[in-house]
Design brief:
This protein is mainly α. 55% of the residues lie in helices and 6% in strands. The protein starts with 11 loop residues before the first helix and ends with a helix.
Length: 240
Amino acid sequence: MLDVKKYQVFSFTKAVIILKKISTKQQFLNLLAHADKIIPLSEAQSMLVSDDITPTAFNQALYELLISGRISCSPAGVTLYTQTLHQWINNLEDLFKKTILTEFFNGENTTSLSMQEIRIHLKEALKSRPPLVEDSFRKIFGQYKFDLDSFTTILAQPSYVYRYLNETCKKGKPDWRDIRHDMSFSEESRMTTTDLITSKGLLIDSSEIAFSSESVLYFLLKSRRQKFQKKTFMPNMWRS
């Protein structure tokens, strides 16, 4: 539970009025941030649903916040969840698990275990994890196929977040380079993606090609020559 004494000047009603023009999800998050207790779901709905927010929009925001791990919901009500991966690990009583998890997410291994053995312990430990702040990136991680460099650069997140998501959810199929055309990302993120393409190269037919007209032209000519050779020589080989 958050310590929100500094927000005592806000009542729930005032918070809703102040946040009237903010998105439904953000209003939900700010309402919970100003709370000093778990809010019954019916109470949260009555305070947010208005002419600007329909019951459908409220339910959609609730669903998206739950699956992203930003909030926790129980029979008592809803509350903001702000426990990080490192906070959860530090609170583990099992010293062995704590060491395995800490070193793995930091990209280290001082134990005598193989990576396969480490992953077995890692998978078992992660089964009991609660919703974590890092889970808020699950949706984005599942939309695009990131590698460590692209994820940490475009989303400005530390490497341990990538390692955590890589172990707990599936990657998307579209390449991260497509983010430059995705208007749901900020202009800064799209520009960062473009800059990264310049340094890492283009992706053509699953091959990374240096970002230059000469490299692209050479790749296209090479591909065309290979296709031509297949069409020309393969039939003769099969006849023989």
